[in-house]
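To fix ideas, we close by showing one paired sequence and structure record:
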Amino acid sequence: FPVTIMDAIEYISEHFERCDEGIIVYKIFNHNYASPSSWKIKEGEIIKEVVNFDRTLDCACGVNVATKRWILDICKHCDLETWKCLIKWEWLVGVCVPYSTDGKIRASRVKLLERIS
């Protein structure tokens, strides 16, 4: 059987909302790991982290963000700080979409737009 490798561009186009500035993503803070002390968690801030671009890894370094659906599924069982965020178009070069993603991607740069919970 031929193996189909997921195309990152198609995945982002099909699963993330677009706006004039880029794509909308969602972030839960302190879900599996504590946030770096260098991050300022407030509206308008840009958080950064070096990305591991190994697409075979579901979880690795980078600013881990997800689809709204993934966040809603996770957040129904937790009470963690959750944000609506932006990855600007020019920042997409710093995004890694794991081959077996269930809704999570990682980015080198994310702008915090508004806290949603």
Notes: The mean pLDDT is 93. The first strand starts at residue 22 and ends at 28. Strands lie at 22-28, 46-48, 63-66, 82-88, 95-96, 104-107, 109-115.
